[in-house]
Amino acid sequence: MRRQGELTVAPTGPAERDALRHYPAAREGTDWLVLGNGEQVATIAERLTGGALPVAALDQLDYEPDPPIFTPRISVSLAWTGLEQLGLVQLAVA
User: Fold this and answer.
1) Furthest-apart CA pair in the chain: how many Å?
2) Could you tell me if 13 and 30 are in contact, meaning their C-beta atoms sit under 8 angstroms apart?
3) Are 29 and 48 in contact (CB under 8 A)?
4) pTM here?
5) Cα separation, 86 vs 94, whole angstroms
6) Distances from the Cα of 60 to the Cαs of 4, 40, 57, 81, in angstroms?
7) How far apart are CA 50 and CA 81, in angstroms?
């Protein structure tokens, strides 16, 4: 599902919302873009909207709440301002 500034993974038919399968996969701001495999995309986008730098916006993300797997959260945050920073994080299961 695509709407202004957001690409969401959503069911194609009637289904209850499931945070592990239905989530914003991309969000775009005026000077940044966030891509990821889960709900953390919304968290990172909120941090960037609040003024955080991309690297700081990726900090302190937990694994997906899907025991016993604990899927790694894969996220990319980039900004095209004067700072020209790219942040990338992938958490691996220890």
Assistant:
1) 44
2) no
3) yes
4) 0.74
5) 25
6) 28, 10, 9, 23
7) 15
